[in-house]
Design a protein that fits this description.
Blueprint: H1 3-9, H2 13-20, E1 34-36, E2 42-44, H3 45-55, E3 72-74, E4 81-83, E5 93-94, H4 96-111, E6 132-134, E7 139-141, H5 143-147, E8 156-158, H6 159-267, H7 272-291, H8 313-320
Length: 327
């Protein structure tokens, strides 16, 4: 805390010094002992204890026979998280410098005369100080207003007692608000963690789903290749059989063609003796060739491949019915 530079910049050093010595919780001058937080901000130890207890309602205080770790709370000035050990706020270091400055300030103030106009004056009775509080109207006023003025029928109380009561109430409200802010921050942190875990879990199940579908694709590809191979094998067997028949018939055709040519040449033979020498054997060969035409044939529907038919409707329905939670 740079008190020197703050005092130099302000025309009224005592007033500025007082501003530097205000606790952010009770809004009053620090009450000793004054503790310094790790973030270098200061608090009355009582105020620090109040917000610590509000943020850690189940923390066991000093003197407990149970050894446990400390809690945590946030600095009301900068929101820095303060993590305590098992001693709680009593484990925080006292700021002796601030305490000494408070003592010097109070001594200086006590030695100075009260400035005129430093106490609020009544608007109705300009020479009267505001020294009582109207409980009925809930406004501060002066004694003359109670005796002769608008508040003579009202219930009043000493200003100092109401002042301390409302200050205590405001301090409690601040503590509750600070504790509430800590709880909200805790919820925000939990929600951020939930968001991160949700993303991680989504990524994991997406990976698992992709792997399962990749496995399904691989099974389908494997089965497709197997069935295509069976069709190809059947095709090759049938084509081989047909090509063999074609070869046999082609050989028979070539042989018959040669016999026809030979028979035609024999018919052109003018000499009977010469013709008879070969005619009988030629006729026999033609008869045998005619019998040889009884070669193998393909059965009706031989080229049909309809038996390679799949009914995949039930499988397609099963694939369409794939969904989460269906086992």
């Amino acid at each position: 805390m740079d008190y020197k530079s703050s005092l130099i910049q302000d025309g009224n050093p005592m007033e500025n010094l007082e501003k530097q010595l205000i606790c952010p919780i009770c809004l009053e001058m620090f009450t000793k002992p004054v503790v310094i937080l790790p973030c270098q901000h200061n608090l009355c130890r009582k105020c620090a204890s109040d917000i610590f207890q509000a943020a850690n309602p189940y923390w066991t205080g000093r003197g407990s026979s149970v050894s446990m770790s400390g809690g945590r709370f946030r600095c009301p000035t900068c929101r820095h998280e303060v993590i305590m050990d098992r001693h709680g706020v009593y484990g925080l270091q006292r700021n002796l410098l601030v305490e000494n400055i408070i003592d010097i300030y109070k001594q200086e103030c006590s030695s100075r005369p009260l400035q005129k106009g430093s106490h609020p004056m009544c608007k109705e009775h300009e020479d009267e100080k505001i020294n009582i509080y109207c409980l009925t109207c809930e406004v501060p006023t002066c004694s003359m207003c109670k005796v002769f003025g608008v508040h003579k029928a009202c219930e009043v109380a000493p200003l100092q007692s109401v002042f301390q009561g409302q200050k205590t109430e405001l301090n409690n409200c601040i503590s509750m608000l600070v504790a509430g802010n800590d709880r909200v921050q805790t919820i925000i942190t939990q929600l951020e963690d939930s968001c991160r875990v949700t993303k991680e879990n989504s990524h994991q199940v997406k990976e698992e789903l992709s792997q399962k579908f990749d496995t399904l694709y691989a099974i389908l590809d494997e089965k497709k290749s197997e069935l295509l191979q069976r069709i190809t094998q059947e095709q090759e067997e049938k084509l081989s059989f047909i090509e063999a028949l074609i070869q046999q018939y082609q050989e028979q055709l070539d042989k018959s063609t040669k016999l026809v040519e030979t028979a035609i040449q024999s018919l052109d033979e003018p000499g009977g003796a010469t013709f008879l020498l070969t005619a009988k054997q030629l006729i026999k060969s033609i008869v045998e060739a005619s019998k040889g035409c009884q070669l193998g044939k393909t059965e009706q529907g031989f080229e049909n491949m309809d038996f390679f038919t799949l009914n995949l409707e039930h499988i397609a329905d099963a694939l369409r019915a794939i969904d989460f939670g269906t086992g």
